[in-house]
């Protein structure tokens, strides 16, 4: 898979550091993958596919490409077309929705505080009586 990652870097004209920044991983992690010290994790692959949806997952994972299409166009297609439900498509960013949240009004209560207990990290506590 390392050779396919290097191909992505070449096609996208990115340095390993820029690529790491693009997909949101540490630069040292990218260096370890390229050097062969570490193998790419599933999380790494998912980040690549999320950031570059035009890259085919079959190619990235297995190096498989269709024999009927120009390999360069299949791996890095120039345009996204409308197709069937199962075709890869470009997804527009989600718009932030504003929601009307109704905050319940405080109800008056006849309840009285009997005791307040504060717990500390060192396993001690302190009690307060409101009276």
Care to describe what's here?
By secondary structure, the chain is mainly alpha-helical. It has a domain of 74 residues: 434 Repressor (Amino-terminal Domain) (Orthogonal Bundle), CATH 1.10.260.40. A two-stranded antiparallel sheet has the order 1-2. Helix 2 packs across helix 3. The longest helix is centred in the N-terminal third of the chain and has 11 residues. The model has no long low-confidence stretch (mean pLDDT 78).
Task: Summarize this structure briefly.
With 131 residues, the protein is mostly helical. The chain is 37% helix and 6% strand.
Features:
single chain, 131 residues, mainly alpha, 434 Repressor (Amino-terminal Domain), two-stranded antiparallel sheet, 2 strands, 6% strand, elongated
Number of separate helices: 6
Q: What is the end-to-end distance?
A: 70 Å
The CATH superfamily title of the domain at 2-75: lambda repressor-like DNA-binding domains
Average pLDDT level = 78
Strand content: 5-15%
Biggest sheet character: 2 strands, antiparallel
- Unreliable stretches: none
Q: Helix/strand/pairing class, anyone?
A: mainly alpha
Oligomeric state of shown chains: single chain
Element order: H for helix, E for strand: HHHHHHEE
């Amino acid at each position: 898979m390392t050779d396919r990652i290097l191909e992505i870097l070449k096609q996208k004209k990115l340095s390993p550091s820029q690529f790491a920044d693009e997909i949101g991983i540490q630069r040292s992690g990218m260096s370890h993958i390229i050097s062969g010290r570490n193998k790419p994790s599933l999380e790494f692959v998912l980040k690549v596919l999320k950031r570059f949806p035009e890259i085919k997952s079959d190619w990235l994972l297995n190096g498989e490409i269709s024999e009927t299409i120009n390999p360069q166009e299949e791996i890095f297609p120039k345009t996204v077309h409308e197709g069937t439900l199962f075709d890869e498509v470009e997804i527009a960013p989600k718009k932030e929705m504003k929601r009307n949240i109704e905050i319940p009004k405080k109800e008056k209560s006849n309840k009285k505080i009997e005791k307040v207990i504060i717990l500390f990290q060192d396993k001690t506590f302190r009690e307060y009586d409101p009276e």
